[in-house]
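ok posting inputs for the 8-OXO-2'-deoxyguanosine-5'-triphosphate job
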Amino acid sequence: MKTISVTCAIIHFEDKILAVQRSETMKLPLKWEFAGGKIELGESEIDCIRREILEELNILIEVKERLTPVTHQYSDFKIKLIPFIAEYLSGELKLREHCSFLLADKDELINLDWAEADLPILKEFIEL
Ligand SMILES: Nc1nc2c([nH]c(=O)n2[C@H]2C[C@H](O)[C@@H](COP(=O)(O)OP(=O)(O)OP(=O)(O)O)O2)c(=O)[nH]1
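and the output
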């Protein structure tokens, strides 16, 4: 089965972290995730995450660090999820695809109902 490469960003708003909830009509409905999306043909990982964040959230970010990618097999597709730590730079946050968002303390994140592929990323981030 083909593996889909997806970037996502753990975005700091000062001391809070942004989590977003997938809408009912998306794949993995109502699961929480870090905003991001699929890498387009010929696009770099960094260009992808900046583009996806602008498209989905209407904000600019500064990418700080790449964490360890996670390969995860869902029942009907397989993804390689590439996480970045980033900082909010500018723009008014608007949800263009997701149904809700949360600005949470790092230690509150684990309580959300995450997309499965995010769990190893969350663990690595919490232990940083
Ligand atoms: N953006 C993002 N996607 C994630 C995360 N965890 C996770 O399993 N995914 C999955 C959900 C999607 O199937 C895929 C990302 O593609 P996408 O954001 O373009 O999702 P999409 O709903 O447009 O997908 P599709 O319907 O076009 O197939 O990766 C995450 O933390 N962030």
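notes: Residues 6, 8, 26-28, 33-38, 79, 81, 115, 117-118 surround 8-OXO-2'-deoxyguanosine-5'-triphosphate (CB under 6 Å). DSSP finds two helices and eight strands in the chain.
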